[in-house]
Batch of 2 targets.
Target 1
Amino acid sequence: MALKFRIGDLGWMVLVGACTLVANGTPLNNDFASQDVLNALAYNVLQFGVPAVLLLRLADALVDAGRLPAWMAYPGVAVTTVIGGIWIIAPALYPLLGKADWWTWENDFGLASTTLIWHGLGVAVYAQLRFSRQAQARLAMLQDAATLRERQLAATQLLALQARVDPALLSERLAVIDDELLHQPHRARLRLAALIELLRALQPHVEAEVSTLAREVAALRAYARLVSADAQHTERLHLAGLSEPPEWPLAPMVLLPLARPLLDEGTTLWSLSLQTGSGLAELRLQALGPDAERTRRAADAVPVAELARRLRAVHGDAAWLTLLAEDMPLFRLTWPLPT
């Protein structure tokens, strides 16, 4: 159990003492001189302000550690502050601050009765606010945990979807490979290797909760080779600075579905680059030409909204996917960097 004190506690001590003085009506007495008010303020700060704040910190620590129930700890603060302040601290202050000649033991009990009421109300408000903040903090923590579980579920579902091999893709590419085996066996072997690399990249690790940039780029590179003219180079896709992409978490079923219809279009050259900054990573898929009109039609056919929802389901609202309508289409895929 550790007591937590803050610099601001000194201000709270003065405030509690001043409020106690005002609540008991002492400074409203017309017979009080300014010197008497300052003396009374010093008394109230030392009698009630200091012990009240210190005892509240002690009560917080005891309640948080489970050593004392709240219904005992916080009422005990008010009672102990009043009793200790009037019958223990005040007599110790008489030699330093003096004592009014007219003050009697009856005044002690009168002061105790009124002060106990005000301090009881103040402690009750403090405890209620503290419990409210703790409840809000717990609710926020539960909401964050629920959001994380939703993202993990979304990532798992997308990984499962990614692992499903498109039958049409297999049958189409295997037919091409079968034809090339008769006339261009070397190219057929390269295309078969690209197909195997693609299938391997689409299969997530057993322990994986989400895909990675390296794995998604590998799948994209393999698909680009698979649909290229010679099955060896990716002439319609240039990977700028992505020869060894980092293993950053990335939502599956976004990058390849984004680029696949663009590569299938068959004429446009595309450049994929990676940029980082301000805690975000950004992939830029830029069309290079040559046919601007045909390229824009292919870009407009990409389901950007659906892919953006997949991205946000895994990475949250900080992730987004947009298509910029420039002379040549530009796709920007942005997501938070791992912390």
Target 2
Amino acid sequence: MRGAGIDSRDDPEILAEHVLGMVAGMPARLASFGIQRDPATQERHTQVAVRLFLRSLRPD
């Protein structure tokens, strides 16, 4: 992904791990503070994370 410091040659498994952190880890962390995103907001965050992942796999 241009301009984001992500090299498309990076290991896809590492990139997938980061996506899972954004999609599952952050909601769990927020929940530990008693914060819960509404379903529409969580869906939006998930879609952005997936797009980021897919763009990172795209060759420049």
